[in-house]
Amino acid sequence: MSENKVTCLHDKHVALGALMSPFGGFDMPIQYKGIVEEHNAVRNAVGVFDVSHMGEVRITGPEAQKFVNYIFTNDITKMEVGGIQYGMMLYPTGGTVDDLLVYTMGENDYFLVINAANIDKDVAWINEQAAKFDVKVDNQSESYGQIAIQGPEAEKTMLEVLSLDCSDLTFYTFKCVDYNGDKMIVSRTGYTGEDGFEVYASHDTIRDMWDMLIQAGVQPCGLGCRDTLRFEVGLPLYGDELTQDITPIMAGFGFFVKLDKDDFIGKEVCAQQKAEGAPKKLVGLELHDKAIPRHGYEVCNENEEPVGYVTTGYRGISVDKSIAVALVDAAYSKLGTALKVHIRKKYFDATVVKKKFHDKSYKK
Amino acid sequence: MSKIIDGLYYSESHEFVKVEGDFGYVGITDYAQHELGNVVYVDMPEVDDEVEAGEDFGAVESVKAASDLVSPVSGTVVEVNEALDDEPGLINKDAFENWIIKVELSDKSELDGLMDAAAYKAFINE
Question: Which residues, including other chains, have CB under 8 Å from residue A52's CB and lie 6 or more apart?
Fold first, then answer.
């Protein structure tokens, strides 16, 4: 346990009585009140998450734009200052190093938000690629705390509790705000399928804001419901739906891979898979029974021969069904295909469905 | 503070047995339901299935994870708590009241290897 890092809000989670567990190298809150209550707070009202474990890397220098576009699948040349893009960093094999957000801070000035578990790996990867470019790579992960305010009442909460008017921010844009002398980044982003904001600031500012939100009665939410929320709306988690063996094309995220831009790492394999079809694909599965498919469970064809595995599965919360996302051989990926999931000693019937089980309600 | 009831038998994997004559009602303890959180599914055996002490006979699933059910006793399943099919959350409301299976005990001496309420209380407070 002592090997895990802690976020700047760790003592507050413990004081709130959160169930704590290791995630991505950090000792993180899984739940406070209960996953179902917290999930529903975000779908129906508002909740606040400590996501300070996420990593932040600043890339600047004369070739920053050229460099980021070379390691990132989306096309950052299409972005203006204040814009954000989602995409992936790939290996030359097309497998995924990480999925991330890129914030355009200024000309040749980018802020990358990466997954906690991948910070060391990503920074090493970025530095390795950066050798051929005139750029400066600065891992700022330990300087920033981060909270996410998510749910249909998020905009109102930002204004009323934190005095931050965010009505001017559209989906996937951000602004820099001076807050008691601290420069912070506020973006209309999230990982829940609901409207919401993420705030990056110094540890002290994040602690102040957290206290204000909790005192105002905003539900603290743990990583437990963060996972059920993102899963229901078809958002991937690195390690489950995206790995070094899973390309964004296999995962169905080809939209974020811009094959019409200049060369980028992994382009060749993605182009080939897009043209010829990927050998494996991520699909949604709906079980006909109440049994719950979990990460790693075997997925079989009707003859009970293995054709893939479950990447994430739950008894849905906003969707009252046992549902999963699975990586299967492409031959079994068509909507309506009958498959089986091996759960403990039995095989349960399932049908291939869309992997967006619940509709997103973003404010565009 | 978890509830513990006198007169029941307890296992280290947090199942309880409530004995009535030749039969035992098996479920999970209040401590276990609290650790699991919202129970969303209970995978139960069928009537007439044989269970064996120390062997899995199903699972209790919370939102987050599946937890195997390990039978503290051996015997034949004579009844399963079908109410849990429709409302698995009953286990969170009262874990001791909402037993999972009723077993016709084949070897009552197995009960001697289980903990009593006092021993279980000490066990979970370790």
Answer: A7, A8, A9, A144, A145, A146, A147, A203, A206
What average pLDDT does chain A have? 97
| Residue count of chain B | 126
Three-state secondary structure call for residue A350: strand
Q: What is the mean pLDDT of residues A330-345?
A: 97
- pLDDT computed for residue A363 by the predictor: 82
Report the percent of chain A where pLDDT is more than 90.
Answer: 97
* Alpha carbons B93 and B87: distance in angstroms, whole number: 10
The domain locations on chain A are 10-52+144-232, 55-122+247-277, 279-364
Q: Please indicate if any CB of chain B lies within 8 Å of the CB of A324.
A: no
A55-122+247-277 and A279-364 have identical folds: no
Topology of the domain comprising A55-122+247-277: Alpha-Beta Plaits (3.30.70)
Q: Residue A72 corresponds to which tokens in the numbers above? A: 């990132």
DSSP A83: B
Q: What is the mean pLDDT of residues A293-321?
A: 96
Q: Does B66 touch chain A (CB under 8 A)?
A: yes
CB A248 within 8 A of CB A256: yes
Contact B63 A224 (CB under 8 A): yes
Domains for chain B: give ranges and CATH numbers: 9-107 (2.40.50.100)
pLDDT for residue B115 is more than 90? yes
From residue B64, how far is each of A170, A256, A260, A310, B7 by CA, in Å?
A: 33, 30, 41, 15, 32
Instruction: Please tell us whether the domain made up of A279-364 is placed in CATH 2.40.30.110.
Output: yes
Instruction: Taking residues A284-307, report their average pLDDT.
Output: 97
Disruptive mutation site among A21, A35, A346 for chain B (greatest number of B CBs within 10 Å): A35
- CA-CA distance, B126 to A14, in Å (whole number)? 20
Pick among 3.30.1490.100, 3.60.15.10, 3.40.50.2300, 3.30.1360.120: CATH of A10-52+144-232: 3.30.1360.120
What mean pLDDT is predicted for residues B72-93? 96
Give this prediction's pTM.
0.93
Average pLDDT over residues B80-92: 96
Other beta carbons less than 10 A from residue A107's beta carbon: 10
